[in-house]
Specification:
heterodimer; A: 245 residues; mainly alpha; two-stranded antiparallel ribbon; globular; B: mainly alpha; 2 helices
Chain lengths: 245, 82
Amino acid sequence: MIDPLHQFEIHRLIPLSLFGFDISFTNSALIMLLSTIAISAYLWFSVNPRSLIPSRFQVISESLYQFAATMVRENIGKEGQVFFPFVFSLFLFVLMGNMAGLIPYSFTFTSHIIVTFSMALMVIIMVTIVGFAKHGFHFFRLFFPQGAPVYIAPLLIPVEIMSYLSRPVSLSVRLFANMMAGHVMLKIFAGFVVLLGATNMMPLAILPMSVSVAMMAFEILVAFLQAYVFAILTCIYLNDAIHLH
Amino acid sequence: MADENKENPWKVAHLGVEFTSAILVGVALGYLVDTWLMTMPWFMVLFVVLGMAAGLLNVVRAMNAMEAESKTKRKEEEGKHD
């Protein structure tokens, strides 16, 4: 009855298949679609009046924009302005996914490693393409810094390549692990409330209940922080590719 | 923050992932090379060790970035007091 992992189950809402691949519309896809619509609609309608004295909603939209814009400017610099739409939408998508998962009966799509890993893979492929487009074969300098003695190349190059390949892994695992661990903890403490409430020690149920409330606040912090970390690491990787050191 | 000299503890929380992910990449690469060349454990052993080196490199880089950031922050704060 009280299964903390039940929340991560994927259900097919509309079964579909294409060339033998299962591309069913699942509950995960539904929340992704809903959060994308929610972000777009919110930004559109809150900024639409374009009033000089902004409404509360417009202030939120503008400060989100400002937040991402300063992040891009500080981490990449002037050349990074091109990537602002990418970083901004990635940030909002992850943030909305994390936040939407905190609504009861919802689903956290960022708690599935395949979702976060495909996002991280997208980032790293883009970074690689940008690096090659900008520097051509000089991009390989990233794997062998200038001034390093040649005889350590056989050791240094594999290590640097693995360090580069570990970026998408650490990017995706960080987000996935934080979201999954947090949601399992929430469900476990909420389960304690039900279990204790069914016994004759019912007043004791207030203890896990208060932990649950505190956890909820903490989870909101983690949801924001992880979206921020995902976006800022994207910026740092882009910066590495644009300005080779 | 109440104490300005205290660093934000959340900043170091991701260093563990930084280290383990490189080892995971090492295991994956070693497994792929081994299944390709039919030399089962040997490349995996080699790549796990290299992965640990890469993980350490990741951690050192992250620490360096953090230190540079906190240094510029401290300088800015000192500039404000003058």
